[in-house]
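Question:
Write out your own:
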Amino acid sequence: MVAKDVTRLWEELRHRDAEEKLGWITQLAQNPTEESIEVLLDVLQQESWFLRDQAARVLATMGESVLEPLVQYLGSGLWYTRASAVLALGRMGNPRAAAPLVEMLKDPNRTVRDAVWDALLLLCRNELATRELAQAFETLPERAKRFALDGLVERDPEVAGRVLLHMEDRAGEADAGGAAAAGDPLGVGEPDEAKQAAR
């Protein structure tokens, strides 16, 4: 798709009804080019929830080529752009998205933080991403780590349990004797509900 066609499609997106807009977004995704990806990313900055959601769904299927641009959009000044980028990254399921998504738990906007929780749960469908999420949690200060684990337990104890098991495995590898022998490898007293779900 040439730049001229992409520009035409973008103009169509602005002036058509919802079903036609969905058709154009689908067309942009069929043969992704640098220009069409740029247009889809730009849609994440639009006020229309419908358009943002559809673009995020399509971007999530495009893989590595959009991972870094989506991570960059996490720094947008628009809360709804950040939330859309978060959801696209969660749907993508790429393990490399774990650390940037965990950082977004600090976002000042509650809607964005809620989107992060949803994205983290989606990310955990991929076992490799679950390991990366556990590693990202490990880098947090104790209070933030507790907040992150509690948030997962509240939403899905089974997922939280899997993350916790990976954290325990990492702690056991790092210090085979110390805290692991004491029965609390992280020293944060994780919720029993998460431990039970993991077993």
